[in-house]
């Protein structure tokens, strides 16, 4: 239909501000985000459930068994967090390598994953030696009860072999994640947990004619599931002819000293960061729990809910690190900055949704603990609300720090940031208010919100500075050149 002279076409409506902000992550990017975030979230939920399985199954046995496995699990958790932190550096490098879309990205990713495996194996071996040969000394740091030390030492000695297996699975999981294939490792992690539950039931209670081993049964169940999970993952990669099924000698020969230095420069601060964070959470929870029996009960109720809810934010943050890292690896700096801003908004939305769901489930969760005293119920309910609000801040903070900043190789900055907000601000202030002023546990717990607000404020300034917009792998742009707004950012040459 012809338009009469002098009549102008109506201009299309301008997109709303939220629509413009989310434009950089629409379409295929959003689908990739879901393909990475969902499997990682499920893996985190699985990881959180493993210790719960042991505790629940041993709950009907001797109380000393529960105490022994509880302390042993805390020691294992510190080691596992450190090993996961070590693989973080490989994730940052691997994401940028894969984002280059160059013909050499396959061999370079193989080099990165092999280096991560080697580095993690070194520290896993140290943990194996400590837990296998000196488990009593490890247990003695958590209790002085001889029976608890003896039973926990048996658990640690048997499960110490799992760290050697974890070195392989964690390194390969990083490679699969940056290749946008985390569902492969997720499937075998789920199989591992299912097998762990079955083996625990058989070996703890002596089903189907098996001996009832108690704590040792829980340990053997954990070891058996880890062996099967690792073997199935390796077999899957080999049968599928996957890039990460083997590491050719000619590829490994081309590993340069600068590659090793870069990996350690990113991995060691991240590992230390993760360990100090886990220790800080433990110390803060201990400070709040130490106020009294009701406070200790409330923290025990909230802890598993907190772990499960945060799995969603952690999954999103890891996906952000992979996707933004890939954009940085292609030297598309302005695009990476726009993606980061949009993904922070997604983090806010995920946090709000998690908060609302948690609040909606407050009554059903509290109904699971009918034996709590009225005072404990009142305190737990109040802290539950504060915890739910905290999910909003934690989700945003994790996307900023674990996702955006680490994608640009800001491992040292992230370490210093977490040390400041946790060990310089939160814990000393909580210690002062509890011991010096005898403050109510509600106000102590509320300090967690202050900690997260400070972390977000500092991280936001760093993101706006654009200093994190760095190419760590020194590759040429994969598609478009760097846009003028980020042209002052220099890539870090590693070769």
TrEMBL record:
<feature type="transmembrane region" description="Helical">
    <location>
        <begin position="308"/>
        <end position="330"/>
    </location>
</feature>
<keyword id="KW-1133">Transmembrane helix</keyword>
<keyword id="KW-0812">Transmembrane</keyword>
<feature type="transmembrane region" description="Helical">
    <location>
        <begin position="262"/>
        <end position="288"/>
    </location>
</feature>
<feature type="transmembrane region" description="Helical">
    <location>
        <begin position="381"/>
        <end position="401"/>
    </location>
</feature>
<dbReference type="GO" id="GO:0015297">
    <property type="term" value="F:antiporter activity"/>
</dbReference>
<dbReference type="GO" id="GO:0005886">
    <property type="term" value="C:plasma membrane"/>
</dbReference>
<dbReference type="InterPro" id="IPR002528">
    <property type="entry name" value="MATE_fam"/>
</dbReference>
<dbReference type="InterPro" id="IPR048279">
    <property type="entry name" value="MdtK-like"/>
</dbReference>
<keyword id="KW-0472">Membrane</keyword>
<dbReference type="GO" id="GO:0042910">
    <property type="term" value="F:xenobiotic transmembrane transporter activity"/>
</dbReference>
<feature type="transmembrane region" description="Helical">
    <location>
        <begin position="188"/>
        <end position="213"/>
    </location>
</feature>
<feature type="transmembrane region" description="Helical">
    <location>
        <begin position="219"/>
        <end position="241"/>
    </location>
</feature>
<feature type="transmembrane region" description="Helical">
    <location>
        <begin position="342"/>
        <end position="361"/>
    </location>
</feature>
<dbReference type="Pfam" id="PF01554">
    <property type="entry name" value="MatE"/>
</dbReference>
<feature type="transmembrane region" description="Helical">
    <location>
        <begin position="155"/>
        <end position="176"/>
    </location>
</feature>
<feature type="transmembrane region" description="Helical">
    <location>
        <begin position="66"/>
        <end position="91"/>
    </location>
</feature>
<feature type="transmembrane region" description="Helical">
    <location>
        <begin position="413"/>
        <end position="436"/>
    </location>
</feature>
<protein>
    <submittedName>
        <fullName>Putative efflux protein, MATE family</fullName>
    </submittedName>
</protein>
<feature type="transmembrane region" description="Helical">
    <location>
        <begin position="112"/>
        <end position="135"/>
    </location>
</feature>
<keyword id="KW-0813">Transport</keyword>
<keyword id="KW-1003">Cell membrane</keyword>
<feature type="transmembrane region" description="Helical">
    <location>
        <begin position="442"/>
        <end position="460"/>
    </location>
</feature>
<dbReference type="InterPro" id="IPR047135">
    <property type="entry name" value="YsiQ"/>
</dbReference>
